[in-house]
Design goal:
five-stranded parallel sheet; eight-stranded mixed sheet; 21 strands; alpha+beta
């Protein structure tokens, strides 16, 4: 932590100070009911090489486990952190920033020796009638975030998962504001929430908004990894393999995960890329939609998985002439329109490359039906917006369509408590953004908490603050 703070001080980044002391309603630390088998000869399989899977592996080796295998369906790890390199330009088509409030991810980047660059992007607003104008100051959003966290009287203990929150905040966000007599969010908050891919409907449960505010809306300054944000996670994977002997099987999509039972001698069998593997414990770091396909129909998780809703969120990259050279632009009037680009951001290398984000689909809870727009229409909307801004799109680059932000529409805390209560049954564990929130920091915190509370033999003597 000290090294990370020194680096950010050198960048003249100001840390968010601790809030004033207020009376809080303490949430009970959540403890899954099961414990994993102790280190030694225990074989552990991790399904998914994204942030949740990699952090799980890192924490497991720190707890003394040595026989660990990670299954990754793609040819590289990183999950929703996706960087494309074109020449000297690094184009971020996934989660593309972190900073002073992302303390777990920041500490990891410093520990692994990744070179960091301060993100000095500034944003403007644009609409068809008035053109460009200066964006509202972000520090007002930060002040509002602090005020809301204090006034809520709910202690946000970031290392703990969502089930640790009070159930009385599991209400629509508008009702939450009324309950605690809070001012409406700032305009910039709404822009950020939309542009970061968290939905067309702003009035979801406060159980999701509070974790967002605790990290993202409280972000004072942001940084990026100079060689591309995915390089942080590929560096971690290389470290796990070389220093701890973790086996990372790329291009090994998992087809099935089946446990023989809850006994000490029972095993979990994983079928991946046509091969069979056997483990004492398995950590599933995949979203619900994929878990539906690989778990048995009678698995106790199955009733909960179809309840999660997704958003289709597309990141496009393109080269253009005649646009701004750095910074970014929010388009407020498109923020709630399916298929319309909500932001355009210049890539860090000032090379004429840009990225843009737009919602492409709204997936129903059944996961069987969804409204979706074709790629050609999405691209045409980008071309049209660039022209309206006075630029000319010269080349369309890589794009990625994400099934983003898995979340529940109601009964968030009770359902997540029930899911967490299944941790370790049949020697199967789960982690990922669907159990926390869709940022690298929240996913890292959940994976770390899971391993520390359920796998670390020394945890019994630890307090929740040590997570």
């Amino acid at each position: 932590r000290g090294a990370a703070m020194r680096i950010l001080r050198d960048m003249q980044i100001e840390f968010l100070g601790a809030p004033e002391s207020v009376e809080v309603e303490q949430a009970l630390p959540f403890r899954p009911p099961h414990r994993a088998m102790a280190p030694g000869s225990t074989r552990i399989g991790i399904v998914g090489g994204g942030v949740g899977g990699l952090i799980s592996a890192l924490e497991l080796v720190r707890c003394g486990y040595r026989d660990i295998t990670i299954f990754e369906a793609d040819d590289e790890v990183g999950g929703k952190v996706l960087t494309h390199q074109i020449g000297d330009e690094y184009i971020e088509l996934g989660q593309n920033f972190f900073g002073d409030s992302f303390r777990h991810v920041l500490d990891l980047a410093v520990e692994l020796g990744c070179q960091l660059t301060q993100n000095e992007l500034t944003f403007q607003l644009w609409d068809e009638k008035y053109g460009f104008e200066e964006a509202p100051v972000r520090r007002t959003t930060r002040a509002w975030s602090e005020a809301m966290t204090k006034a809520s009287r709910n202690r946000m203990n970031p290392p703990l998962p969502l089930p640790s929150l009070h159930q009385d905040i599991d209400i629509p966000f508008s009702q939450y504001l009324q309950k605690y007599r809070l001012r409406p969010p700032t305009t910039m908050y709404y822009f950020d929430w939309n542009a970061m891919g968290y939905g067309l409907d702003l009035d979801i449960s406060a159980a999701y908004v509070l974790p967002y505010i605790s990290v993202v809306a409280a972000l004072g300054n942001s940084v990026y990894v100079t060689k591309g944000n995915r390089s942080l996670w590929t560096t971690l994977a290389a470290h796990l393999a070389s220093q701890w002997g973790v086996k990372i099987l790329r291009q090994h999509p998992v087809e099935q995960v089946v446990s023989s039972g809850n006994g000490l001698d029972d095993k979990v069998r994983v079928q991946a890329a046509g091969q069979q593997f056997e483990f004492e414990e398995v950590v599933l770091a995949l979203p619900p939609k994929q878990l539906i396909d690989i778990l048995p129909k009678d698995d106790p998780l199955q009733p909960y998985l179809p309840q999660f809703r997704y958003l289709g969120y597309v990141m496009h990259s393109f080269r253009a002439d005649g646009l701004f050279k750095d910074g970014g632009v929010f388009i407020p009037e498109y923020a709630k329109v399916l298929g319309k680009p909500m932001l355009i951001q210049a890539c860090h290398g000032h090379s004429g490359w840009y990225i843009t984000g737009q919602f492409s689909a709204d997936y129903s809870p059944s996961l069987d039906q969804h409204s979706s727009l074709p790629v050609a229409e999405l691209e045409q909307n980008v071309v049209a917006l660039v022209e309206k801004m006075g630029g000319k799109l010269t080349e369309m680059g890589p794009q990625r369509n994400w099934e983003y932000f898995p979340h529940l529409r109601e009964n968030v805390v009770p359902n997540l408590r029930a899911i967490e209560g299944l941790q370790g049954q049949r020697h199967i564990w789960t982690t990922g953004s669907w159990l926390s929130f869709e940022t690298t920091e929240h996913v890292a915190r959940h994976a770390r908490h899971l391993v520390r509370t359920c796998f670390d033999p020394a945890y019994e003597a630890a307090s929740p603050e040590q997570d």
